[in-house]
Amino acid sequence: MTENVIALLKSSFNDLFNEQPEFYYFSPGRINLIGEHLDYNGGHVFPAAISFGTYAAVSITDHPIFNFYSLNFKEEPIHSIPNEDLIFDKKHSWTNYAKGVIKYIEEQTNTTLPKGLNICVYGNIQNGAGLSSSASLELLIGYIINDIFSLNLSQLDLIKIGQRVENEFIGLNSGIMDQFAIGMGKESHAILLNCNDLSYEYAPLHLKNYSLVIINSNKRRELSDSKYNERRAECELALQKLQTKLNIQHLCDLDVNTYEQNKNLITDINAQKRAKHVVYENTRTLEALNALQNNDLTVFGKLMNDSHISLKEDYDVTGKELDTIFESAIELDYVLGSRMTGAGFGGCAIALVQSDKIKDFKNHVHAQYMKVIGYEPEFYEVNISDGPKKLKEYR
User: What is the SS3 string spanning 117-168?
Assistant: First the structure.
């Protein structure tokens, strides 16, 4: 796949900029195996970088102007951004993510980049699918700038800059999981991340004769226009109520028993349900790590199912499309587990499917989804990937 994408980028780059690219880069997307909506609640998440993501062809220019073009938005022109114009501008569309990264890199390094770049990008994860196309782009641009201009920023620096772009430049009050999962991605490993202190450990994914399949609902999810910020506010309300009695900093400081003993402090019923999901999901995530370490995929699959049900009933972020995928998946005896992944409100689900039954799985879910929803889902069979990287020379 990489060779085909590089050939497309090379040809397009030459047409756009009348020169050949000097460098090629790749940044993965991510899935979250379990642990949803915990990163901003001080809990544990369990994501992994995937082999689908965002590619870039790049050349250096003599003038401090950044020229951006995306093969995913062919209706848009080349966006030419002078270094002194790194401000949010709605008409610049996706390039705002890139502008934010450059702006905050320059601030952090107290540097004004002496030259500009021509950058042509292509992503093979659908925008709005919930596989972190925006974080993939942020880490891609950060890696490119850091590499070409030898700024010596750490990967954690770039991860934090990516989150800052989302929070301050774009205006989405998201946690750090997406950027961390992408920036710290490791082939064939998931990452158990403690979002409270950013401690983490890698967990080998030994799926034996099972495979992870991503199912895209094709219901586009626009996080900044969704109820994401509303859910976060409900969690903050629940925390405030609990803090009238308990000395805690985050909802995930609670274990299940303590939550059950004190849940009536949360008088708003929706806020109570959000807190329930958070506390129980944090426990499930730690149990999921233990299950994988013990090679118990059956337990891991059940935890995936329980996670989706909680996201549906307590956090209310699934919707008809994701629920239809989930319900059609778990009725198959060769599927160990399934759940939505990402923030919800559309986007993708994942399923742990017996490898020799993937074709049957796709046919079944496709038929059920068409019957209930009326348009087609998409399926991705992915490998677990390393983080952002410079690709070998292609000439």
Answer: EEEEEEECCCCCCCCCHHHHHHHHHHHHHHHHCCCCCCHHHHHHHHHHHHHH
Report how many helices (DSSP H) and strands (DSSP E) the chain contains, helices first: 11, 13
What kind of fold does domain 2-202+385-390 have according to CATH? Ribosomal Protein S5; domain 2 (3.30.230)
| Helices 297-313 & 269-293 angle (0-180, nearest 10) | 170
Q: pLDDT per residue over 225-260, tens digit each?
A: 568 889 999 999 999 999 999 999 999 999 999 999
Q: What is the pLDDT of residues 42-88, one digit of tens each?
A: 999 999 999 999 999 999 999 999 999 999 999 999 999 999 899 99
Active site residue 15: no
Options 39, 178, 253, 323, the catalytic residue: 178
pTM for the predicted model, two decimal places: 0.88
Round the average pLDDT of the chain to a whole number and report it. 94
Residues 6+ apart with CB under 8 A from 290: none
The helix or strand, by DSSP H or E, that contains position 321, with its residue range, turns out to be: helix 319-330
Q: How far is CA 301 from CA 5, 190, 220, 337, 354, in A?
A: 34, 15, 26, 4, 12
| Every domain of the chain and the residues it spans | 2-202+385-390
